[in-house]
Amino acid sequence: MLTINLFNGFVYGSLLIIMCSGLALIYGLRRVVNFAHGSFYMLGAYLGYTVAMQSNFWVALIVAPALMAILGVLLDRYGFRLLQDRDPLTVVLVTFGLLLVIEDMVQSVWGKSNLSVAAPEALNFSVDLFGTPVPAYRIGVIVMGATVALGLSLWLRYSKIGLFVRAASTDPVTTAMQGVNTDALSAAVVGLGTALAGLAGVVSAPFLSLSPSMSSDVLIDSFVVVVIGGLGSLAGAFIAALLLGMVQAIGAVYLPDASVLLPFVFMVAILIWKPAGFAGSRT
Amino acid sequence: MSPLRAILISVAALLAGVGVVTVVSSNTVLSLLTQAVVYAVFALGIGVLLKQNGLVSFGHALYFGASGYAIGITLQLQIMPVEWAILATLAGIGIAAFVIGLIIVRVPGIAFGMLTLAIGQMFYLSVSRARGVTGGADGMQVDWPATIFGFSQSSILKPAVMFLICWSTLVVVMLLLSLLLNTRLGAITEAVRDNEERARFIGISTVMPRAAIYALSAVVTALAGMLSTLNTGFVSPENLHWSLSGMALMMVVVGGFKALWGPALGAVVYFIFKDVVGDYATHWMSIFGVALIAVIVFSPTGIAGALQALWRSKPAAGSRAKAGVH
């Protein structure tokens, strides 16, 4: 019982990693907390559903994030860039407005009832893990989360663009003066972040059902994760995502009645200890 | 604003409320106005937090719904008379919010907003699942007793009386807030809002006053929740949902938060707008999302800000100098 729950906690943590790395990237570069990130996740999942219906899951895994990337680039070009000199609160509220529009759009296009996507054929079997059978697809989710975490870390650490992203996250003005095109960089990063939300949506579809409330559930958990991890910190978000997944899994076994409240208690405990999160600075 | 002037304006506003009741005879219009005023109190709670602390709450529905549930459960248990139950609920929510505030106001900037959303939504989930106490997703009936503060329930529930109760609450709360913010607490919180570091350097404790404002804003919103359950006799998890917090926040932003009356104005505008576009009700969220974005981008100070700018540009320099004094 505990093994399978811990395993599921790990799966959910991996999903949160994909989700939160997008949120943290966008915050790092644009200093925008994207309230529409959960809606992007939902939109990605529903787009993935439609594509998977027409062809198969693997195509959806590529196409839906690609579409979301385009949306992200447009959002940066015609939203964040035009508003970059405004009060941070302004931009947050704009993303909140966007959230309302996307939620409404998704409901009117795909309806309010729950939809589900079948796991792809190639991963539709069970694996024995410490004597408990677990669906191979969920192991795939963990692999996907690890790939995203590792890929992003290596990219930011060793590539030239990664260097630019780190520089612009620290000081966008100086970075621009050194000849880096920070506008193009931001567009790329917001595009990538939005694509990651879409990717998380598609990945979640076969093991969580699609419903109009899926966005807020995940958004809340993602916020808890990035606040605990320290806003804008990728490593902090990775650790916090796995921890949150574990806390929920253990709570589901030992405190089933309070499992909803556990992330909150966990968060409060961390914030009393470190008000700016694991990796946060006081800004 | 000088205290005397604030009191005079409040008296005039109370009389205006009586005027509205005598002029408007349609019950539909009165109940629409009542709803608008209830949400004006709700928005005022969020507005005061934003104005004094510079912090945005995305989860104030927590206090709106919690006060309805708290009063409902206390009345159901019949442990105290209704008057005490009302006071106990408000005091309890104030204390709870103060404790929560002590933890979350220390979190820098926008992370605060994310936390309020997370806390609110977790409370929403727990309430919708706790079927035994709260009736779960179906909500619960609130059994108001036959007499409240010496008035019979049937007379209170008349639309005109209900409107007057809500309107007077709004006016009195606004008066008390403007008097309170004129004191040292108001000055301290503004100093902390504008530059926390310097405020700390000159020896101001920065967490306590902000937590106090947070608790104050929670109590104002709880009062709105109480008026709402008095009006409808019902409370459901919808009263706690983040979309409600979002709607109220939208009223604050549209109305403008630099002045106390901005959020209230925003609530009235919201309800008029809602009545006008009622035919397209299925696309509510889109319409409001677009409206919100438009107001923020083109008029960041909201309607109140635009009106104040208009007001200040017209009168001569003399009144402008006076405006600088208060």
Output the keywords.
heterodimer, A: 283 residues, mainly alpha, two-stranded antiparallel sheet, 11 helices, 2 strands, 73% helix, 3% strand, globular, B: 326 residues, ABC transporter involved in vitamin B12 uptake, BtuC, two-stranded antiparallel ribbon, 16 helices, disordered C terminus
Give an overview of the whole structure.
The complex is a heterodimer of chains A (283) and B (326). With 283 residues, chain A is mainly alpha-helical. Chain A has one domain. Chain A contains 11 helices and 2 strands, in the order ααααββααααααα. Chain A has a two-stranded antiparallel ribbon. Chain B has 326 residues and is mainly alpha-helical. Chain B has a single domain, classed as ABC transporter involved in vitamin B12 uptake, BtuC, CATH 1.10.3470. A two-stranded antiparallel sheet of chain B has the order 1-4. A two-stranded antiparallel ribbon of chain B has the order 2-3. In chain B, a hairpin with a 2-residue loop joins strand 2 (147-148) and strand 3 (151-152). In chain B, helix 2 crosses helix 12 (242-255) and helix 13 (261-276) packs across helix 15. The chains are: A mainly alpha (283), B mainly alpha (326). The interface between A and B is large, with 43 and 39 residues.
